[in-house]
Amino acid sequence: MTWTCDLIEARLSDYLEGLLQESERAAFEAHAKSCADCAPLVSSVRSLVGEMHSMGELETPPRLVYAILDKTLGPRETVTGWQGFLNVIRGFATPKFAYGAASVMATLIIVLGASGFSLRKPKLADLRPAAIYQTADRQVHLVFARSVKYVSDLRVVYEIQSRLRQDENNLQTTPEEMLPKSSPEKNPGQTDDHKPSQPRQQNRANEVSRHLKMLAVELPMLGERSIR
Amino acid sequence: MEQDAQLVQQCLQGDGSAWEELVRRHTRRIFNICYRFTGNRTDAEDLSQDVFLRVYRTLGSYRSAHGGFATWATSVTRNLLIDHYRRTKRDRITDSLDDKMPVVENKESAGRRPDEQALLGELSMQVQSALTRLSPELREAVILRDLQQLEYAEIQTVLAVPEGTVKSRINRGRIELARILQQMGVRPA
Predict the structure, then answer these.
(1) What is the ipTM of this complex?
(2) Is-contact B32 A58, C-beta < 8 A?
(3) C-alpha distance from B106 to closest chain A C-alpha (Å)
(4) Which of A14, A36, A100, B47 is the most exposed place for a label (fewest CB within 10 A)?
(5) Do B119 and A44 touch (CB under 8 A)?
(6) Maximum distance among all Cα pairs of chain B, rounded to whole angstroms
(7) pLDDT digits (tens, 9 = 90+) for B66-89
(8) Start-end of H helices in A74-194
(9) Domain extent at residue B117
(10) CATH code, domain with B9
């Protein structure tokens, strides 16, 4: 029996896998060797099969198994149930978490207080951005006004203090200057007051004479009488 | 195989770790079948997840007397791959109208990651490209026989066709693949 090209094609895999009987194999090879179409076909299919057998498998993507388990068994946390929940709670009980939570709370309270939100009387309206802005603006102005007042108060207090100190200094220096100076400079034959009169005494004298003049003008009769 | 049957029994009794073990044992094989069929890593991952989801839901219908778990899971995979092929057929037709044959090959190899290219090698990459241009019936037969190296009887179970048809599809698939490679200018040494 002579093999046609169609038959060669149909039995090619059987030939390559050694499934042909001896006589069939001889006939196959006889045709394949002599046929210009079948020889390259047999050769290329043989090397293709060899190549495919040597092609390695791809590694499984690492996340694929977990994705499949999540899809079938549900998310991993729910698998562990109460145990998982307890583990999460246990994580909260560490000192580090407590410090962190305390500082976050303190920051929140400060920020809320500054934004005008009262924790005792919480109102939703206090959380509006416009309300927060207004309160913050008012707070800033209040703080500015208070600081300005404080500075000016300080200035007044300082001024008063410096005046008082100045007066104290004056009071202390006057008797000191008067007392020790008067005694050593006392020389025989000289009066204590070398000046004719102190300015205050002079003023008083002037005042007395002025009053007298006024009296003289207002009461001319009395003046004439006295002159007489 | 016996171990798989035992794991399936444990799964049916509600043992999650048995299911995890089953998934770990078969993920690589299922993923590779999907990758060889689609030629796309992302599609292969998505399809692998769908395969295991269906296996999980229909585990009760598996009977170890009718063949191994691997064969059963492979036939689930094959059914989903054919569904996927039919679903995406319209997209592929518009794609092939947009760009002609030689461009398709370049586009496919350009979409691969460098580690894949290194693993597959130049010739393997071209074989993979040629595979995706085979008709789905011939493609699945060649993949199961020459890449997964299943026995004819197992392929017969997976494809649910007579042995003669399996042999014929494998043979025609190989010849067709060699011709596609020849058209692409690739000649295996």
Answers:
(1) 0.83
(2) yes
(3) 20
(4) A36
(5) no
(6) 55
(7) 788 999 999 999 999 999 999 888
(8) 76-80, 82-92, 95-114, 129-182
(9) 107-189
(10) 1.10.1740.10
CB contact under 8 A, B45 and A69: no
A44·B178 Cβ contact <8 A: yes
Which of A44, A54, A76 should we substitute to test contact with B (largest number of B Cβ atoms within 10 Å)?
Answer: A44
Q: What is the DSSP secondary structure assignment for residue B65, as one 8-state letter?
A: G
Cross-chain Cβ contact A71/B149 below 8 Å: no
Contact A13, B141 (CB under 8 A): no
Give yes or no: residues B77 and B114 share one domain: no
Taking the Cβ of residue B124 and every Cβ of chain A, the question of whether any pair is shorter than 8 Å is answered with yes
* Contact with chain B for residue A58, Cβ under 8 A: yes
pLDDT tier at A129 (50, 70, 90 boundaries)? confident
- Inspect the interface and report whether the beta carbons of B32 and A57 lie closer than 8 Å: yes
B1 falls in which pLDDT band (50, 70, 90)?
A: low
Q: Pick the residue from chain B with its C-alpha nearest to A64.
A: B45
pLDDT score of B31 more than 80: yes
| Residue A204 pLDDT > 70 | no
Q: What is the pLDDT of residue A29?
A: 93
For the cut 80, the answer to whether the pLDDT of residue B93 exceeds it is: no
Position B134 in a domain:
yes
Residue B95 belongs to a domain: no
Q: Which two tokens stand for residue A22?
A: 């001896």
Nearest CA in chain A to B41: A61
Q: Is A83 on the interface with B (CB under 8 A)?
A: no
Terminus-to-terminus CA distance in chain A, angstroms?
193
Q: Do B181 and A68 touch (CB under 8 A)?
A: no
Report the alpha-carbon distance of residue A185 to residue A178 in Å, rounded: 11
Q: Is there a domain that residue B99 lies in?
A: no
The CATH number given to whatever domain includes residue B160 is 1.10.10.10
Residues B83, B131: one domain?
no
Split into its structural domains, chain B has a count of 2
Tell me, yes or no, if A78 comes closer than 8 A to chain B by beta carbon: no
A4-20 tens-digit pLDDT: 999 999 999 999 999 99
Cβ within 8 Å of residue B163, ≥6 positions away: B152, B153, B156
* Closest residue, chain B, to A13 (C-alpha): B171
